[in-house]
Amino acid sequence: MDLSLLWYLLSILLVLVGLAGTIYPALPGLGLLAAGFLLAAWNGNFVQVGFWPLTTIVLLAVAGMVIESVASLLGARKSGASREALIGALLGGLIGLFFGLFGAIAGPVLGAVIGELIARRNLPQASRVGAATFLGFLAGTVAKIACAFAMLGVFILALLF
């Protein structure tokens, strides 16, 4: 079997797992997508997919990861969250990753609510902060998915043209 075929199969696997990772928060989806595209371009000696498309793909991956990372915190901050709530959202997000998809979603929200209650705020304010954290998480996920499809589009356009 030709070794280049194995490299292409590995790049396809990385892209597929990366696409799944854009929905499942515990997987580094955009990083795996970028790695798959870079591997495919390398295997093709960078003939069809060159420097600028790959640079664009990497920049989109980095932008998507940054947006996803800060979106929940920005959502909480917009609702007037305390410093304790922001720390709680961050810690809840990290701890939640160990508990699958539900934990990755619920962790930042519960962390923000608990942090807000620790700051001696009332339950309605803590609930608003939790809801805003969840909306920030959703916005970050939508942005990450948009970046993933933009990366895919850049790669396909580079292959075609």
TrEMBL record:
The chain crosses the membrane at residues 6-24, 57-76, 88-114, 134-160. Pfam families: DUF456. Keywords: Membrane, Transmembrane, Transmembrane helix. This is DUF456 family protein.
